[in-house]
Amino acid sequence: VFLLFFTTHEELQTLDVDDAFFSTPEDIAARALKPQGGVNFIRTFKKQVEDQAVNLPPNLDELVQNATYVQSPDNLVWRYFYNLKGSAEYPFPGGLFQWARYRINGTGLNETEKIFSESLNKHENTLTLATLRIFSNGLGQPHYHFNANEMGYVISGCGQAGVILSSGVTARFNIDIGDVIFFPVGTQHYIKSVCEEDLVLILAYSTGNQLETLRMNAYFHGTADHILAQLFFKEQAEFKKFPKAAK
């Protein structure tokens, strides 16, 4: 079972090998592939009613005798493959992240992770992927991303999400196993766990660059306390009560 994310907001267009083959005139396919028997061999191929990219043939064991292949060298494999489950964990108050992402200058990445990171950054419209675990009754605090839309899929647990809109209204909703959530770029949002078990999600961000995120505790401390005093009608000294954000 795979969970797939595609970097397009338009209707996804896909052309499978068999569709391309059957859309090619028989004489053109014969000249391109040069099989024994020529065009007569090409004519022995029959288009199936069902999409064989999705539905496996009932006689697959008869058709396939050897499905093994030789593993490619690491410098090729790690351009397209990343061991997310075995990668470094990044804890935060209330949970932890694991990332398949681009980091500027490969900061904090091992050699194979650097290969993957550089590969992401070389391609347009790629993705940063992560797993997010929020501990029971924990909180992924309000934050927003400067350079990416975010989508998430709930693997386990249950929770609540909130989207703070520019009008000052908050859209709140419950999330459960199998649900998909979407946060547009620049939209402040939060997620919290409300079950006894941890809330676990797979997250995808629409950027191959280093993800830029600003969290509520960071921008509170990034704003001068005399400005906050004017905004909230509270004495300036009151804002010393907020602890500084941990890095």
Automatic annotation (TrEMBL):
Signal peptide interval: none
Gene Ontology cellular component annotations, sorted alphabetically: Golgi apparatus; plasma membrane
SUPFAM superfamilies associated with the record: RmlC-like cupins (SSF51182)
Domain of life: Eukaryota
Domain Cupin type-1: 107-240
InterPro entries: Cupin_1, Dynactin-associated, RmlC-like_jellyroll, RmlC_Cupin_sf
This protein's name: GL25 protein
Organism annotation: Mesembrinibis cayennensis
